[in-house]
Specification:
Blueprint lengths: L8 E2 L2 E2 L19 E12 L2 H9 L7 H14 L1 H4 L10 E9 L4 E12 L4 H19 L7 E11 L6 E2 L3
Antiparallel strand pairs: 1-2, 3-5, 3-6, 4-5, 6-7
Helix pairs in contact: 2-4
Catalytic activity: (8S)-3',8-cyclo-7,8-dihydroguanosine 5'-triphosphate = cyclic pyranopterin phosphate + diphosphate
Pathway: Cofactor biosynthesis; molybdopterin biosynthesis
Family: Belongs to the MoaC family.
Length: about 170
């Protein structure tokens, strides 16, 4: 009897499906431990008055940027609870930066996640940005329900077998 591939080891390489087509977590145990970094970005677009309230600290819910920064860090750490089949990772660093851009009426968010491990941190960086953006929305929705979240994307990834992607952060 032939043994079935385990943990996503299929004839075609790494996949989230086993030989029977069932969803599985990819087995990364044979991959090398390397330093891995990923940087993602996104923006929350809003009315000028809303951005002015954020910048002045005038929102009743408090310091939007500080709360969103903390939420983004917490979101990165909880990625495997939010995204099916993501590996739980021992992140060594999560950085979330938020800046206000009055010319675009936006809060721009950038996150960089790092670790030494067998799998990358792209999903963690993207999750950090997304959770921080949702937190900005949540804290400001009483004054601006028309905000939009957009431009969420991976800017850079380094480490691992697939090599680097994007430009250095």
């Amino acid at each position: 009897m032939m043994e079935k591939p385990t943990g996503g080891e299929a004839a075609a390489g790494f996949t989230h499906f086993d030989a029977e087509g069932r969803a599985v977590m990819v087995d990364v145990s044979d991959k090398d431990i390397t330093e891995r970094t990923a940087t993602a970005r996104g923006s929350v677009f809003m009315r000028p008055e809303t951005l002015a309230l954020i910048m002045s600290g005038g929102l009743k819910k408090g310091d939007v940027l500080s709360v969103a920064r903390l939420a983004g860090i917490m979101g990165a750490k909880r990625t495997p609870d939010l995204i099916p089949l993501c590996h739980p990772l021992a992140l060594t660093s999560v950085k979330v930066d938020l800046t206000c851009d009055p010319e675009r009426n936006a809060v721009d968010i950038t996150s960089t996640c790092k670790l030494k491990g067998r799998t990358g941190v792209e999903m963690e960086a993207l999750t950090a940005v997304s959770v921080a953006a949702l937190t900005v929305y949540d804290m400001c929705k009483a004054v601006d329900r028309g905000m939009t979240i957009g431009d969420v994307s991976l800017l850079h990834k380094a480490g691992g077998k697939s090599g680097d992607y994007g430009t250095a952060p």
